[in-house]
Amino acid sequence: MSSRFAPRSTPTRTTVRGGETAIPQGMPRQPTAARTRTWTPPHPLNLGLTLGPLRRGPADPTFRATPDGSAWRASRTPQGPGTLRVALRADTVEAEAWGPGAAWLLDQLPQLLGDSDTPEDFTPRHRLLAATAHRRPGLRLLRTGLVLESLIPSILEQKVTTDEAYRAWRLLVRKYGEPAPGKTPAQLRLHVMPDPRTWTLIPSWEWHKAGVDDKRASTILRAARVAARMEEAVTMTPPEAQARLELIPGIGPWTSAETIQRSNGAPDAVTVGDLHLPGIIGYALAGDRTADDEEMLRLLEPYAGQRHRAARLILLSGRTPARRQPKMPKTDIAAL
């Protein structure tokens, strides 16, 4: 199917103190004709559970859910920016896409919705997980095929509260990204995240205003400068992909796991180094709310190969301990 697309806009630059810096993107793209696709998954599918990990907060400018049951996603694909709308009608997925990346997004639709996932490889060994898996047959582990769009927000989430990370992602994408292509509802305010070069040109004071400390900002800059090498990780096995990401100083096992869970659909990429997850896993599987990473991995050992899926099911089970320790304090670096 052919369609015409508006030409890709070029980010405006200016010079500050002898060097280039990114400034907000220019005019919104002109509406383009939509490409469409329908797909009937050969398995149960819960759209919200499957796509939920892509949402970075209720005001994420790259992902929105609407009351009609649609999920909207703005992405920077290998072919350029694209907007995808997905809805599940009866047993059929209906999708529309706009922009230079539209064809790529539609080609990847089954993978995005977990078609390559293999939940049949998961054998529950605890009654809690068996019951949750039975109640949630439509849970699939997604695979975006895109690394940076999950890596950068994961870096922003390092060692801060989720609210702080979501705010930084929202401010930076809206200011330095670009309006999503296509005829998207105006109230969604969808934006495509900045391209790698634009990330590297964001001035230090803008990171500061978004609440991002120098360590996280520097890690994002290092990753953006080798974006092509980072994106190659989608062709690798999950362990190889994590090793590739962790070559970047500032990216450790927590960040690499959070990334490839989304980009590669990795069913065994359990998140270590998380503040709350070990206690949740320990409480659900052994009644131990004080479990650390070592104990969490020991408890998940029966699910080797499917440990991320086991963790997702535990989080969906509702069996989580009451939080006794104080929440992580917010840090206002703009006031420092």
TrEMBL record:
It comes from the Bacteria. Residues 28-56 have a biased composition (Low complexity). Residues 1-79 are annotated as: Disordered. Keywords: DNA damage, DNA repair. Residues 1-15 have a biased composition (Polar residues). It catalyses: Hydrolysis of alkylated DNA, releasing 3-methyladenine, 3-methylguanine, 7-methylguanine and 7-methyladenine. The keyword RNA-binding does not apply. Its EC number is 3.2.2.21. This is DNA-3-methyladenine glycosylase II. The lineage of its organism: Bacteria, Bacillati, Actinomycetota, Actinomycetes, Kitasatosporales.
